[in-house]
Design brief:
mainly alpha, elongated
Length: about 70
């Protein structure tokens, strides 16, 4: 019973807490104002930033940022 409760708690935490990478990508993208600038700062590609933010939006059930067509 104890292991089942611990397992259930871990599963709830895993599904209720967004990834730290996604949260950092959101903060940097919001601060920079451009996904491409955020990508440079995070040392990842621009599509990686877009993907992280998309996962965060799905997790939170909200649209956070609109991608800038110029980057």
């Amino acid at each position: 019973p104890q292991n089942a409760a611990n397992s259930q708690l871990k599963q709830q935490l895993h599904t209720s807490v967004p990834s730290l990478k996604a949260l950092v990508a959101f903060e940097v993208a919001a601060r920079c104002g451009r996904f491409s600038s955020a990508a440079v700062e995070l040392n990842v590609t621009q599509p990686a930033v877009s993907r992280l933010l998309a996962h965060l939006e799905v997790h939170l059930h909200v649209e956070l940022l609109l991608p800038n067509p110029t980057g």
